[in-house]
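Researcher: Sequence recovery benchmark, item below. Answer with residues only.
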């Protein structure tokens, strides 16, 4: 399974994204990290180009609803709506359901234990098992 980890928007803190990327890599996933300051359009294009199964968005800026919506719309516009989107970061509990209604598969608020994140990815193995 291929996973793209992305930092959308102007948020410049990527330690958590890198830690999650490493945990997924250690669990056998092929991980692509896009780096900082990616637009939703860039993320959707990279997800299609890299042929990933899941896009993980790390958002600490508070713009998680807008950014997730734009990434999902970008994927659908490229006929890639089957690529799952998950969101992690500073996510208020009141926004979890709104993200899920947008089509976000999982939400990982700040402090979610790494084994819990890996387990959620393992349950979402839709195309192929981790290598």
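Model:
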């Amino acid at each position: 399974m291929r996973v793209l980890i992305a930092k959308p928007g102007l948020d410049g803190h990527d330690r958590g994204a890198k830690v999650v990327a490493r945990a997924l890599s250690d669990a056998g996933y092929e991980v692509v990290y896009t780096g900082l300051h990616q637009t939703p359009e860039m993320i959707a294009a990279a997800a299609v180009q890299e042929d990933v199964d899941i896009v993980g968005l790390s958002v600490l800026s508070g713009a998680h609803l807008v950014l997730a919506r734009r990434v999902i719309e970008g994927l659908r516009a490229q006929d890639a709506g089957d690529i799952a989107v998950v969101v992690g970061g500073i996510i208020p509990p009141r926004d979890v359901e709104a993200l899920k209604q947008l089509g976000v598969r999982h939400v990982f608020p700040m402090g979610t234990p790494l084994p819990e994140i890996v387990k959620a990815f393992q349950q979402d193995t839709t195309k192929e098992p981790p290598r």
